[in-house]
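User: Working on a comparison across species. This one is (S)-2-hydroxy-acid oxidase from Branchiostoma lanceolatum. Can you predict its structure so I can line it up against the others?
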Amino acid sequence: MAGTQASPPPQRLADFETLAKRKLPEHVYSYYRGWAGDGQTARDNCDAFKRYYLLTRVLQDVSKQDTTVTVFGSVLDFPVVIAPTAQHSLAHSEGEKATAKAAASMNVGMVVSSWTSYGIEEIVEAAPQGVKWFHLTLQKDLARNKALLTRAEQAGCTAVVLTVDQPVARRLKRKGKLAVAPDNWSLPHMTFDDAPERGTVSYGEYIYSSMKQPITWDDVEWTKTNTSLPVVLKGILSAEDAKEAVKRGLDGICVSNHGGRQLDGVPATIDVLPDVVRAVEGRLEVYMDGGVRTGTDILKALALGAKCVFVGRPVLWGLAYKGEVGVRQVLQVLNDELRVAMAHTGCSKVSDITPKLLLRQSCVGCHLTSKL
Ligand SMILES: Cc1cc2nc3c(=O)[nH]c(=O)nc-3n(C[C@H](O)[C@H](O)[C@H](O)COP(=O)(O)O)c2cc1C
Ligand SMILES: CCCCCCC(=O)C(=O)O
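Assistant: Here's the predicted structure for (S)-2-hydroxy-acid oxidase from Branchiostoma lanceolatum:
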């Protein structure tokens, strides 16, 4: 019948944002898109990838690309993990349950935020077969943290991701306005027992009142000793902190500036990744996030030493656009683009992806002149 054909899925991650923007209330879109300061870091996370060029290799047998990677003993079909992001039910009524189903069906990982709208058990029950890691925001009440770690373990999570880049409350903005999550939330992992009465303080102050701020290396030690799961620190940007993480026996780090949502003016994550990778000398796993929008971005991050990438906002755009199906489409675009990029650069498996595939923009001139 004429007019009943489904429209083809969007072909670029940027298109999902356009479609999501049409569906989301302005305040939710603003919260998801929001950044710190003037958004320099948030923009640069994306722009910085464009400063790296890919060098093609031809005449290789790339008829098949094996994109699988193994993280903490679990095989992922391709090197993507859904970053922890708060409040998926603001994008879709099924919230994190829909995201988890999409992640499981594509066999990528998902980090379940402490700030979800559904409890960890419900999320795992919706998609029991997927690889889930639990993101811990440390709360003031240590017993509460311990209880959450136990719940995550019992629910079947296979790693803990501790966010370490929120020493103080931030000022999240978009278009110069403060953007905060809307207040029709449900936060089943968080407690607000000694929070100021709602309505007497700003929303941000209320939210942050549950958190332990600042947290220190002692809290990292506390976390490690209170879980049997591997612990990943999320929010590392310096070689020094990375070395300290190695010294303290952490299992992984995620090079992240929180999508440019904490401190404006810090470098793009892809630009600090090589320093961090060098510093850890292979003694723990390194992941990265911030600005990953294409399969070539994934290839570049892997070439610079990341084991896999976390993806934040694009997943929320897919979820807002079409729920579970939309998230799956976002992941499919990334997978298709990664395969094409691997084929052109002569890689038939992930271990073929090395720094030799990349040329940094500032070196283009040197490269050309050295050949003249
Ligand atoms: C709406 C939103 C909520 C987020 N919530 C969390 C969170 O609960 N915990 C956390 O560690 N990071 C959180 N982040 C940061 C992401 O995990 C990730 O570091 C960032 O989004 C990556 O950048 P990208 O959005 O450019 O992919 C959030 C980011 C967004 C956009
Ligand atoms: C609904 C509470 C949001 C808490 C903060 C989540 C986060 O890390 C973010 O960047 O937003």
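For your comparison, note: The pocket of flavin mononucleotide (ligand 1) is lined by residues 32, 45, 83-86, 113, 115, 135, 163, 234, 256, 258-259, 261, 289-292, 311-313 (CB under 6 Å).

User: Helpful, thanks.
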